[in-house]
Amino acid sequence: MASKTQRTAKRTKKPTKAPATKRRTQQREPPAPKRMPARGTAPSSRTPASASSPSSGGGGAGTGWTPDIGEVGIRVRMYRVGFGDFFLISFLDAAGKPVHVIVDCGVFKGTKQTGDIHSIEAAVANMAETTGGRVALIIMTHRHADHIAGFARCADTFKKLAVGGVWMPIWESEYEPTALKFQAELTRTAFGLRQHFSSLARASEEQNTARKYMENATGELGATGTAAAGSNAVALNLLKHGFTGLNPGYYKGGDNPQLPKALDGIGVSAQILGPPPVADMDLMKLMDLQKNVGQYLTGAVGTSAGPFEPFDSVWEIDPTKVLAKGQRETYTGVSFREWVYPRKSWQPVKPAQAHRARTNVEELLLQSQPIAALVAAKQLNSFLNNQSLVVLFSFKGKNLLFVGDSQAGNWEHWLFKTDTPDKMAKGVLDATAQQILTNLHFYKVGHHGSGNATPKVVVETMGKPGHKFAAMCSTQKDVYGTEDPEDPTKGTEVPRIPLLQKLASESAFVRSDQIPITLNGKVIPAKVSETLPGAFPGGRFVKGDFWVDCFL
Amino acid sequence: MVNISSSSKYPTPVRRPLRVFAFDPSRGRLLGNEMQIEVRFRPLAPGPIDTSGAHDQIAIVDYDISRKKYYHPVNLDDPFVLLSNGIAPSESDPRFHQQMVYAVASDTIEQFESALGRRIHWRRAERQLDAKKGWLPDDILTLTLYPHAMQQANAFYSPEAHGILFGYFQAGRDDPGRNIPGQTVFTCLSHDIIVHEMTHAILDGLRSHFMEQTNPDVAAFHEAFADLAALFRHFTHREVLVDAIQRSGGRLYSPALKGNALADQAAQSWLGAGEQDRNPLIELAGQFGEATGMHKGLRSAIGQPKTMKDLQETTECHERGSILVAAVFDAFFTVYLQRATKHFRIYQSAGGGDRGDLPAPLADALCHEATRTALEFFRSCARALDYLPPVDVTFGDFLRAVMTAHRDFDPSDDEGIRDTWMESFRRREILPDDAPFFSEDALCWPDQGENHPIKGLPFGGPSGLVYAERQQTAEGLAAYINKPASKRFLKLDPRRDYRIPSFHPLYRMDRSGSVRWDLVVEVVQTAPATASTYPMRGGATMIVSTNGTGDGGSKEAVFVRYVIAKPLTGPEGQQRAKRQAEHLEDRGIKRGGNASELRVNFALVHGGE
User: Which among A238, A197, A237, A239 has a CA at the least distance from the CA of A215?
Assistant: First the structure.
């Protein structure tokens, strides 16, 4: 790829300035003609820390950086987009020119509407500038808005890119009938549920939560509000058909992916670890290790088509209608006695009381409904997460793991080499998996740090004594409620604090919402106060304008 | 005119016969799937709604939340309906659904009442000791059952809705099992599901803190108990039972029934074509399970033999519950086989051939044994409920309660039934954490003899305590518990208030035929949470007893016989606090909440099954 980068690069300022084979050690090359990567970002926002760092910002496709001692020339850039994933990986070729890979580009406002901080447009612009319009590979881990919304929102920018390859999970394949049928059904269900929740007069917190889950699965609606118009559909269409002459690769765990030449040529290799094959529906349905609120999607799908008539309409009656004398068969006041206040069960129920009681109980029953619908919504959500493409990159002896939003079933398939889901995750770690985890140098924390997406055994194995790896978690605090997995109103705790604490103790760890960013002159403060670890054995973190770079 | 009788009125009937499905509609009319239940006669309004005016009744209201429609209520007093013992089973007539829900629910209540020896009541709101009299909105007086509450593959007991919501849904299109693809499946037509959900409601009324998940066993116990109630009901379905006995060669536990004598082959091919022949007796809710894509019944009673490791690692409440169900059924089948063996011996000594198809009289005798044994076991389980601690129950507590209740009922135990219980629990490593040894003596709650007399308690009559007697009992109990010595004895925390959520007199006939009076009292204390701790409940179940009521000369006839305590303080309390904190931590529950927030949400537990 390095050989064909220059011409299309928008900027030609420094293409020849690449340090080539020169390996400077402590002294990093000060990128003298520094330019701000994206419009709208004030140069003054640059912190002293990053000023002394290499050109972590702009630069055309040919602009590389000088790896520090112990580094091999990998940069993983995590953009702070809010609640979502947008990663840019760059590998330096022998000439010191970077070859770029995009892993996901999405953001979602989440259940509390606070997830989207509207920085993704600037991030995409920076990506375009950094890559000089040439991207060797785009990976879409799965079709949730928080991983693909950016492809739709910035479609114009993406369309202009010269892309060498697109990888998607097997579930997106149009040659896989089961997958195709299932995705269609899933989308239909998601829309059905979403409509169901929207049509309720008074939306409770649970209903809102469920609706948001579904919005993540469908994307933002267009004017017509149909499935085809959802922003996810736009993104998928772009990735599948938007790059002329390019057919995406659809992969599952164990597949041998077709690596774009630019990556292959410089010695990057990639292994696909997940998702499980389409046939392993059981694994795909295993979404969650502990909560286990039912694993059977079929019932949920059955409810999606909207209400159907269970009986002939002659059996429907209106209890408010006064019946002819002598006719007994309707619900009388006594039917609703339980809801008559004050509760004096020995007194007869007056018609007005009965009417009030009946209205009360109807409302109460309606309130009790969304809980179960929320279960269905959660199931769909997790199912999509389990479709995540899991990719392990290796470059010059360093291994980088990107797991998307994989939940239990996806993990277990490659961790334990099993086809049988196990809620307790008590399988024996497969030797290969063990090998992979203990030799990891970079881990993209699954599912924005959610507790359901990084099994304990993984953290324990990765964090073997004396081994320090880097972990990046793209997340935004207070987007998905923080408590009690048993309680639907509160959703999952994302990110899960104990998990992040454990990771932070085992690795050099950074989360995207710990860096304050300035966008169009407006400061978006950090959500948590953490210090950036800086250098660690074999690599370092460097803060950028609205991203963090991890050099390896 | 001559008046030939003292009254022209007809006598009030005692029973009302009603037709129901023995299992669920998927079994068609084969194999005695239709049965008749004789429920207690009650005056009914269309619904049916019990209009007797008594508390703790049930009402059927057929409101569909998904469609915002009411369905025509059945009038069980219509002469045509009366003439035909209720409406004939039909999937397309909602009135039959209402009838079935009413009949099975009433029958379940009756089963529990006869086992417990008293009337049951529904959940009551939490009251302090000095609470004002009168009903609170959270008291459930009438449990309302909604046969077609929603279009969902779900059915659940909801204390908030004061009732049980049964869902209905369309069977999966790809993998509907024995249902037609897309066929409507009604959870309210599954005998098992009705019994299961009713049992949740009954158990919640008996022990209001058993829904608070303070350890992994609590929710599992609720599930297991509900499954047990449903399963034991199957053994009263005579026609099916005879068929199952004949086809399983007398061994009821075989999960796959033989089509013929080729036993091994049948077992081998069970996964294939033989699926039709799964043993209906030990499968719960067949149609529901099949329609949602699970090929076995909802929860099969006899699973893999479980080991200690499994019990430690299984936290999902249905799976954990199934370990308890399997243990109880293991004991049940052992006792049944002991009893059946006698018949086999007689049959064989009279020249009967080896096991194969059993002759009708033998099958009949075996059927009788199975029914009798099942009823005994159900009653042992139900009676044990009164011997459980008021909070934080574990499977081990249940074993101890069963042992104690059984010993009270049948001290001599000629058939060694208590040994069987112990053996089957030991095999699954369900061990009480506080019993010193695994022996009958050590497992039964310690009998306190007559050392702790309690005064001023009226005995009441077999139909319960009248209002004045209830007041007198409450005062007597409070006077007793307020004494510092009693608090020490009951292991209560003297610094905290206590509540008495319930007390029940029991009038039971023991095996020897004499009447036994006991009073079961729950005493509960609550330690509220601080910012860094979880709320915690403690307390004790007191079983007050007497040696005889007729002897006026006995000066201290009433005494506290058993104290089944879960203290808040002391080493036991600390250990419990630790275990509870670990469990709640595991489940991601926030510290500093309210104790009632620990309640299990059955809408989620059963959802999507």
Answer: A197
Residue A536, helix vs strand vs coil: strand
CA end-to-end span of chain A, whole Å?
20
Interface-testing mutation among B64, B154, B160, B598, with chain A (most A C-beta atoms within 10 A): B154
Strand partners, A518: A523
Quick one: pLDDT band at residue B584, thresholds 50, 70, 90?
confident
Q: How far is A9 from chain B (nearest CA, A)?
A: 50
Report the run of H or E that residue B538 belongs to, with start and end.
Answer: strand B536-546
Amino acid symbol at B118: R
Please give the full DSSP string across B404-416, using - where no structure is assigned: HHHHHH-SS-TT-
pLDDT digits (tens, 9 = 90+) for B179-196: 666 778 898 998 888 999
Mutate to test the interface with A, among B51, B77, B604 (most CBs of A within 10 A): B604
Answer whether A295 sits within 8 Å of B93, measured CB to CB.
no
pLDDT digits (tens, 9 = 90+) for B461-482: 766 778 888 888 888 899 999 9
Which residue, A103, A72, A85, is CA-closest to A475? A85
Per-residue pLDDT, averaged over B325-351, amounts to: 80
How far away is chain B from the Cα of A364, in angstroms, using its nearest Cα?
7
Chain A residues with beta carbon closer than 8 angstroms to that of B59: 335, 337-338
Nearest Cβ partner of B316 from A292, A365, A368?
A: A292
Contact B94 A379 (CB under 8 A): no
Closest to A303 (Cβ–Cβ): which among B46, B141, B151? Answer: B151
DSSP per residue, A43-71: GGG--HHHHTS---S---TT------TT-
Nearest-neighbour CA in chain A from B213: distance (Å)? 11
Alpha-carbon distances of B148 from A25, A178, B60, B145, B196, rounded to whole Å: 74, 33, 10, 9, 17
Of A365, A375, A241, which is closest to residue B161 (Cα–Cα)? A365
Question: Per-residue confidence at A421, pLDDT binned at 50, 70, 90?
Answer: low
Among all residues of chain B, which has the CA nearest to that of A281? B293
Q: Which residues of B touch A376 (CB under 8 A)?
A: 607-608
CB B176 within 8 A of CB B290: yes
B449-479: string of b/e by CB count within 10 Å (b at 16+)? ebebebeebbbbeeeebeeebeebbeebbee
Q: Which residue has the higher pLDDT, B209 or A45?
A: B209
What is this structure's pTM? 0.66
Q: What's the ipTM?
A: 0.77
Phi, psi angle pair for B122, to nearest 5°: -85, 180
Question: What percent helix, strand, coil does chain B show, rounded to 5?
Answer: 40, 15, 40
Task: Give B453's strand partners.
Answer: B559
